[in-house]
Amino acid sequence: GIVRNADRSARRKGARIMMQKAMNGDLSEDDDETEDLLATKIYSQLGLGEEIEDDDDDDDEGVDQGLLGDGEGDTATELGKSPRKRRPTKKKEKYEPPPVEGYESYFEQHRRGTKTSNSTLANLPPLDLGEYHRLLREYAMPHEDERQMLLDIHRENFGQWAFELSQNFNVMVYGYGSKRKLLMEFAKKIWSPKNFVVVVNGHVPTLTTRDILSTIFTTILGADHGRKLGSNPNDMLDNLLSLLNGEDEDDDIRDTFPHDARITLIIHSLDGEALRGERHQAVLARLASHPRISVVASIDHIRAPLLWDSAKASQFNFLWHDATTFVPYSVGEASVEDSIKMGGSGRAGGTKGVKYVLASLPQNAKDLYRILVSHQLQAMEEDGGGGNEVAGEQYGVEYKVLYQMGIEEFICSNDMAFRTLLKEFHDHQMVTSRRDLQGTEILWAPFRKEELESILEDIM
Questions:
Q1: Which residues are paired to 444 by β-bridges?
Q2: pLDDT digits (tens, 9 = 90+) for 340-392
Q3: What is the pLDDT of residues 147-189, one digit of tens each?
């Protein structure tokens, strides 16, 4: 009790002295520091140090109460302990954004976080070609009776279509569903010894106008005609039109193709990927305008008529017929294998990918690729090879030879620029290179002959 009273007496005396000096205005800066230290020491003994730091704006009345009060703090000081008195902590209020007004409030209330799935196409097991066809055979198509009824309705129009063809019009059928079966039945109906029928599958990606013209030549002259048809599709078309006009007086031709005979082209998917180009449509339009050529075609894209300007539309001279069948589309085995890469290791993108890449490259890159493809096709023609096999290094071009050709045509000015162009081709798998036994680098385009011809037509 004695120690406690002594401490309390000293504290009271110190507080009284400070209050007198403050009232008399005798406080100096040194006194202020001394008194601050004394007050801090006293408050620390009372366990109120944290309260002073947190609340520096307490008035004198609060200070007096802390100095003069007794109770548990005094008992703690006597025992040599300094318990800390904590203020009750305030709960942090959750921040709420201001309310959104207008139409944005609806989207704010219904906003959800995006979830990304880890499932990718690469995780699926590879689909074998045989398994693909097995699944197609086992799948039962719904509404078979209704689709058959639609086909029966369209078959009743075969007479009308044949009459329109006889009046030098061409027939265009459109509508949802595959029209292949319908057009093949019409081809069987109109075929005769004086009405030859040529079927063109426009949905095949590797189809070219050269293939179409060559087939027509074979139909007129026979498979072993041995004639030179021309170096490009325009020359071939000019020779074909001359032949149809009767300018060739060969007796063998009169036997196989009489002067009053006609040819009917059945073109499936005239708006197909392989025939959408400007040059392809121009050649087919000129061909369709000949009086001895009739065209029965189908389209599947809703914007297919945009392929033709007024001149081409006048040459085609189509009469349009709705032939909606709701029959599922089916393409040839090679086309399916190429499009979904089943059971093979074909080039990514194929010729379609090459055309997209060339469209984004500068003109000098296109010219360099044109030189390579032209040289490779010439080597194939001289060797009589190609066919359906992918071209190999035997038809390639030496690095120095191709570089010299590029210099002569002002495609590149130095070896660095030449290698920069080649790097674009290598990155997109458009060119393959290999060194022979002598160490000479050989470059070639790894595509089939018909694919190279299609690429060259697109570049030209």
A1: 432
A2: 444 433 454 567 778 888 888 899 999 999 999 998 888 888 876 655 566 67
A3: 999 999 999 999 999 999 999 999 999 999 999 999 999 999 9
